[in-house]
Write a structure and sequence with these properties.
86 residues, mainly beta, Immunoglobulin-like, elongated, disulfide bond, cytoplasm, OBSCN protein, Ig-like_dom_sf
């Protein structure tokens, strides 16, 4: 069983205007095969034309494209037992 990854760089609050992209980044202590998941409120996010989810090494990035007022709310990132929110 692989050691658990922890969050070493937490999410930061992002302010953006309607029509802009909002970028959230979270850095883990190690690369992991553990399930990592982004949420807007309680809704799990998937990578699609509105949301881009990228993983580069230990850096996990969420890009919300052309945000609207409906996208306003808490963003959270979860891996294992660890959560970061903005």
């Amino acid at each position: 069983k692989e050691p658990e990854a922890t969050i070493v760089e937490t999410l930061k609050d992002v302010t953006s205007y309607e029509g802009e992209d909002a970028v959230f980044e979270c850095r883990l202590s190690r690369q992991t095969t553990q399930d990592a998941q982004w949420f807007l409120g309680d809704v799990p996010l998937q990578s699609n034309e509105m949301n881009e989810i990228k993983v580069q090494g230990t850096c996990h990035t969420l890009i919300l494209r052309k945000v609207t007022l409906e996208d306003c709310g808490p963003i959270s990132f979860k891996v294992g037992q660890h959560t970061s929110a903005a």
